[in-house]
Amino acid sequence: MPELVEANVKLVCERPEKLMRSITSVKCLSLCLYGSMLEHRIEFDQLVQLELCECSPDWWDLLTWMLENSPKLQVLKLNNCKERFYCFVKDIVGRWREPSCVPECLMYHLNTFEWKCYNGEPEEKRVVAYILKNATELKTLAISAAKLYQWEITRGQREELVALPRASSSCQLLVD
């Protein structure tokens, strides 16, 4: 689908490669992928905005995979599914695997990072720290607590986030 500009994909599937290859021309992608992780190199060379659902137990791998394969990414949003019936789990499985080298999108393009269901888990803090440390063009990093679970970001957690090193001197950190 070379003319596809925007896609909203919610998929429970063992092998999503065929679908993912068909939407590589998108500029804006909302992705909720529950199933086997993508192993193949599929580049989203036009993608500038990604909204990634964190409902899959191994969504960490999908995040890394998308960062590595979206060189022009400017906006990254992490959320839970809007349709609660579709969302199976929120629990984190394993540890986040940082990209083997800093993705091109972080070095040159990412300017907005929003996380709407932040829980304050150590692995989540690692993701935020990695983005702040490597996103040289980051203008805004907005973090909101997972209100659905009656959780709030504590003052200490807020101070920890504010104290994290930043690659971009103009980055504004918004913590709600």
Automatic annotation (TrEMBL):
<dbReference type="Pfam" id="PF08387">
    <property type="entry name" value="FBD"/>
</dbReference>
<feature type="domain" description="FBD">
    <location>
        <begin position="104"/>
        <end position="176"/>
    </location>
</feature>
<dbReference type="InterPro" id="IPR006566">
    <property type="entry name" value="FBD"/>
</dbReference>
<dbReference type="InterPro" id="IPR050232">
    <property type="entry name" value="FBL13/AtMIF1-like"/>
</dbReference>
<protein>
    <submittedName>
        <fullName>FBD-associated F-box protein</fullName>
    </submittedName>
</protein>
